[in-house]
Amino acid sequence: MTATARRTPRREAAPATDERLRDADRSQGTILAAARDEFAEFGLGGARVDRIAERAGLNKRLIYYYFADKETLFQAVLEQSYRDIRAAEQQLNLLEVEPVDAVRRLVRFTWDYYLAHPEFLTLLNSANLHKARHLAESKRARELNSPLIETLAAVLERGRRDGSFRGGVDPVQLYVSIAGMAYFYLSNSYTLSAIFGRDLLTPKARSERLSHMTDVTLGYLLHN
Q: Is 164 helix (H, G, I), strand (E, B) or coil?
């Protein structure tokens, strides 16, 4: 057999291989989306692989082909959830604007993202019920979140150098505070509304909360 003849099958096989990879990516994406909705609605304990397969419109055996068990699937859903929010944050281009504007953008984005993706909050609630062991075991989850902290640290340092921000601010603590102000409010909006006798999810209340979060964050950061 000539060298040319030997190469021909490989050239013809490449498109089929690429198509199989695309099919695999689509299948896994469909499974993760269905599993996200299932875990968000029922938590890890109440979720059922049968229902995930039904939501995805796929055979249950295919789920087990890609994901060993429900625990592995839950970990993959958490990783994908962090991948999504971190990818969206990258579009903020925080290093291309003034430090004060960068912080304003991050606060607004965090608030708006949580409002638009309530499933993200319920997934975190479920993960915390299990002491975040799925995230603790995930090297990928840590890798996904590190760039955000590095970017925020760079924003804080730029602000310190130009005199707008005070020094000594821990970017991790700052981000936890920003996320926490949004997360607690939205996760507990029904109980808070009940005990304080006011609807905390009206458009006016949501706008006031965003303004408050921004003022609190910048009030802490701004160099007086």
A: coil
Residues 165 and 123 in one domain: yes
Instruction: Give the torsion through C-alpha atoms of 163, 168, 172, 177, to 10 deg.
Output: -70
Q: Are 52 and 34 in contact (CB under 8 A)?
A: yes
- Give the residue carrying structure tokens 């989306």: 33
More confident residue, 14 or 101: 101
13-31 burial, b if ≥16 CB within 10 A, otherwise e?
eeeeeeeeeeeeeebbebb
Burial class (CB in 10 A: 0-12, 13-18, 19+), 137: exposed
**Cβ pair 165, 222 in contact under 8 A:** yes
pTM of the model: 0.86
Shared domain check, 90 and 6: no
Residues 18 and 51 in one domain: yes
pLDDT by residue (tens digit) across 151-193?
999 999 999 999 999 999 999 999 999 999 999 999 999 999 9
Estimate the crossing angle of helix 118-129 against helix 70-90, to 10 degrees.
130
